[in-house]
Amino acid sequence: MASIKQTVSAPIVAQAKDETANGPGLSRRAWIDIIQGFQSWRVWWLLGIGDIRQRYRRSRLGQFWITLSVAIFIAAIGTVYSALFKQPIEKYIPYLATTYITWTLISGIIIDSTSAFIQAEGFLRQQALPKSTFILRILVRNFVSFGHNIVVLPVIFLIFGVSPAWTWFAALGGLVLIAVVGFLGGLVCAILCTRFRDLPQIIQNFVQVAFFVSPVAWQVDLLDESVRHWVIINPFAAFLQMVSEPLLGRLPGAITYTSAAATIGVSALIAWVLFRRFRQRIVYWL
Amino acid sequence: MTSITLRNVGVDFPIYNARGRSLKANVLRRVGGHIDSHDGEIVTVEALRDINLELRSGDRLGLVGHNGAGKSTLLRVLAGAYEPSRGVAQINGTVSSLLDMTMGMDPELTGRENITLRGIFLGMTFQEIAELTPAVEEFTELGGFLELPMRTYSTGMTLRLAFAVSTAVQPDILLLDEMISVGDANFADKAESRMEQVMENSSILVLASHDPAMLKRYCNKAVLMNGGQIVAAGSLGDILEQHSGTESVA
């Protein structure tokens, strides 16, 4: 018989918000939750991979349906829209491919995080698991999915003659920033959606609208110069461009990074305030 | 040092009806004003109230009480899943709650993959799981079925697998909601001796049960719960007597 070597080594101290416990207690436990969440990587890794496997189990193509469906979308929409926007197809399809794949990652994280805790009810009501684990699981699920999607890029780049560039490394940085904002924003989304069950529907709607108002299918250059700067206030645009522009050999401007940093800062603040205050209530809302 | 300390622990469940849980109700409550005040209030159920409990190494506690007395909620507080709404709960030691043994198991995965998944939730590393797997496989007697998806298993086979993994690690604190019995006669004997071994080696045991014989066999003290409160604590004999007393009154 093995003895348990727990990955979570600190004793479980659950203290309610009353006279004996004040602010620092709550902060400390919220912080411990996040640290233990990252330490329990085995849990979120296996759950995240399992989500992908489960979705495509028993299908012949398996998870490569992800790749196939994104390839079909890009081919179809790319052909139609390049005619519609009167863009040369060899420029438009690589653009659409990079933005759409990045968009799928961002929107996937948002939509999946609405059910992060609700889906984990069985676990959370049973065992003292860090809540943040289940946000990280959503990130794993969506980044694995992204890994399957990105397979179409080399093919498209070969067909349309987009050459490799050093700026590709900047795209990696962009992905890291998406992971950071995804964790923070996902946490906010997950907490609020567990408490208010109408929110998942609202957020799904919002994400659909965001697709059309963000430069995924259309290019910023097509806008009149007088309205172009409005794109900057859309945080989705900033995170999209941080990945898609470097892939096409261009570096996004400083304003893009500033906008992304501001978004991360704001979501970190909201996430911390909500998580600190309501972390222990989440399980009661399930 | 393994210990459990609960001081004035209370657990409240907010019950949001369809309106209370929706954003609409919250928004309307602010701007409306014409909504009946009853709709604005959140109903809370007090599942536990003023629970004081002190358990040390060697304690075998029986939880006695009617359905809805708060036994399962208390077990979930002890497991660390519910952080109390009021009071302080301090639990030192590794906890194994066999409240739901199949937690985290996935019917689409094979038996062997499920051993890994369940093991991870028990806090093991991949290395430790790999070392433990042969023993678990042998214990389940499932043989070739371990290569098949768990959805092909019968209920009994699933429980065998869950039981074998769940009891493969030795916790400091063991929480049980009713004594577990799995499998057919042969396996049940094997499972019982395994269960008893885990119970014996754990330094604190908390067993909620309606079966006096089971409680007498495994526990050395007990608390009687009613309406979310501990109404009596003491030796097992006294508590069982009090419990049967309330039963005849009811």
From TrEMBL, chain A:
InterPro entries: ABC2_TM. Residues 44-244 form the ABC-2 type transporter transmembrane domain. Pfam families: ABC2_membrane (PF01061). It is a multi-pass membrane protein. It is found in: Cell membrane. It comes from the Bacteria. GO terms for molecular function: ABC-type transporter activity. The chain crosses the membrane at residues 64-85, 97-118, 139-160, 166-190, 202-220, 254-275. GO terms for cellular component: plasma membrane. This is Lipopolysaccharide transport system permease protein.
TrEMBL record, chain B:
Keywords: ATP-binding, Nucleotide-binding, Transport. Residues 23-250 form the ABC transporter domain. GO terms for molecular function: ABC-type transporter activity; ATP binding; ATP hydrolysis activity. It comes from the Bacteria. InterPro entries: AAA+_ATPase (IPR003593), ABC_transporter-like_ATP-bd (IPR003439), ABC_transpr_TagH-like (IPR015860), Bact_Polysacc_Export_ATP-bd (IPR050683), P-loop_NTPase (IPR027417). Pfam families: ABC_tran (PF00005). SUPFAM superfamilies: P-loop containing nucleoside triphosphate hydrolases (SSF52540). The keyword Protein biosynthesis does not apply. GO terms for cellular component: membrane. The keyword tRNA-binding does not apply. Belongs to the ABC transporter superfamily. This is ABC-2 type transport system ATP-binding protein/lipopolysaccharide transport system ATP-binding protein.
